[in-house]
Amino acid sequence: MSAVPPSSFFVLPRSKKLLGVAGFLGLALVLFYPFASSDSAAQGGVVTTAHGGVPARAALARPNEPLLPIQPNIDLNPAKVALGRQLFHDPRLSRDNSVSCASCHDLSRGGMDRRVRSLGVGQREGVINAPTVLNAALNFRQFWDGRSPSLEDQVAGPIHNPLEMDSSWAEVIAKLRQDARLESQFIALYKAPPAPALVQDAIAEFERSLLTPSRMDRWLTGDDAALSERELAGYALFKRHGCTACHQGANVGGNLFQRFGVMQDYFAGKPAISAADLGRYNVTGREEDRHVFKVPSLRNVARTAPYFHDGSAATLEEAVSQMGRFQLGVELPKQDVQLIVAFLHALSGEVPSP
Ligand code: HEC
Ligand code: HEC
Questions:
Q1: Residue 229 catalytic?
Q2: Is the dihedral of CA 14, 19, 25, 30 positive or negative?
Q3: What pTM does this model have?
């Protein structure tokens, strides 16, 4: 598999009657399963890909599960990871030296800021909820609308965004080059002084180290005792209700575009539709991409409230029950919601420390 098919391929029609949940699931398996490992080479029998994290299905302890365990990233350059970590926490990447990547992607807070919308320089409020950087390396695209193709490319976004770091490469590089110690670190590692591509390279390498294997990964690799009975019951419901049609693969999401409101119009009840609500439409300009978003990863989701691109769901219970309503056309019984939430907690992993 080389290229990723156009997003419309993945987008389900918003018709209640067209697809019952069973048909929906069948369709989902046929359509989505081959893409479960995104655009990496994982289906080709490769054990780890260059950018890591995805095992070959044949080698799995539980090969028929729609979720895949994270593989440790064995080919990272530790010196780049260390430099990238430093830059990720460096406020000089912002115009007035007040905001670092970590301001909005706090690694001790699930890799985000727990706000509905983030605050950038001068306390300016952004337009969309900050996703976690944890396991972002496993996403097939970056950003809610998938407008960025790689972690390297993504770095330039917040640096230039007036509501985030409000700076420019020229400003950032000039500041970094005044720091003799930092400059010698770059020269030792890259044989060159700080430059945009090198800052991008180091930060992306650091982000590739932010994989968080969880108890679910232990279960997926064969440890029956890793999940409690409640969590296993929740996982069974997660599959039975069809959540895995969209949240699947190594990142439990992050490998498909889907409309928010497949079975019922989520946006109909909103007082106003913002540009951010248009999702992938902003990238492609195609009508069928209106309100289409990258399906978010559910790894560490118990730590990343509030939920959805608009931060509208304050609790995980609320998010899960809205997913039932808008994506699957079912009002999930309270007990199912609670069990699914119990399962989602098993997706919280260890954040690697330096
Ligand atoms: C002011 C807050 C803020 C700052 C500073 C910030 N981000 Fe973000 N980050 C966000 C928001 C909000 C989004 C979602 C934007 C969107 O999808 O349109 C995001 C998205 C991302 C994503 C995509 C994740 C995904 O699942 O799609 C990555 C990776 C990321 N940021 C890394 C970084 C890095 C690296 C830096 C520093 C160079 C940084 N961010 C600085 C708020 C911030
Ligand atoms: C048809 C695809 C699809 C199905 C089925 C689906 N989801 Fe989602 N899910 C999405 C999309 C797309 C989003 C992002 C919506 C947004 O914010 O715009 C999302 C968001 C979420 C979020 C919020 C994540 C975050 O970080 O904000 C949770 C939690 C979630 N889904 C859980 C579930 C559960 C549990 C099920 C099954 C009951 C489910 N989903 C079924 C596509 C789907």
A1: no
A2: negative
A3: 0.89
C-alpha dihedral, 29 to 34 to 35 to 39, nearest 10°: 180
Asked if 127 contacts 274 with a C-beta cutoff of 8 angstroms, the reply is: yes
pLDDT single digits (tens) 200-249? 999 999 999 999 999 999 999 999 999 999 999 999 999 999 999 999 99
Residue of the CA atom closest to atom 41 of ligand 1: 101
Which residue among 164, 205, 207, 231 is the active-site one? 164
Which amino acid makes up residue 330?
Answer: V
Q: Is 111 in the pocket of ligand 1 (CB under 6 A)?
A: no
* Phi, psi dihedrals of residue 15, rounded to the nearest 5°: -125, 125
Q: Tell me, what's the pLDDT at 194?
A: 98
Domain covering 78-208 assigned CATH 3.10.129.10 in the classification: no
Nearest atom of ligand 1 to the alpha carbon of 117? 12
Ligand 2 contacts CB of residue 42 (under 6 A): no
Q: Which ligand is nearest to the CA of 263?
A: 2
Q: Per 3-state DSSP, what percentage of the chain is helix, strand, and coil (rounded to 5)? A: 45, 5, 50
Alpha carbon 209 to its chain's center:
14
CATH topology match: 7-73+213-345 vs 78-208: yes
Q: Whose CA is nearest to atom 10 of ligand 1?
A: 130
Q: What is d(CA 37, CA 39) in angstroms, rounded to the nearest whole number? A: 7
Helix axes 196-208, 169-177, angle to 10 degrees: 90
Q: How far apart are CA 279 and CA 309, in angstroms?
A: 9
Question: Rounded to an integer, what distance in angstroms lies between the CA atom of residue 354 and that of residue 352?
Answer: 7
**Ligand 1 within 6 A of CB of 101:** yes
| Partners of 214 in the β-ladder | 349
Give the domain 7-73+213-345 fold.
Answer: Cytochrome Bc1 Complex; Chain D, domain 2 (1.10.760)
Nearest atom of ligand 1 to the alpha carbon of 294: 27
Domain boundaries in the chain? 7-73+213-345, 78-208
Q: Is the CB of 206 under 6 A from ligand 1?
A: no
The DSSP-derived string for 264-277 is S-GGGG-S---GGG
Can you tell me the distance from the alpha carbon of 353 to that of 160, in angstroms, rounded to the nearest whole number?
A: 28
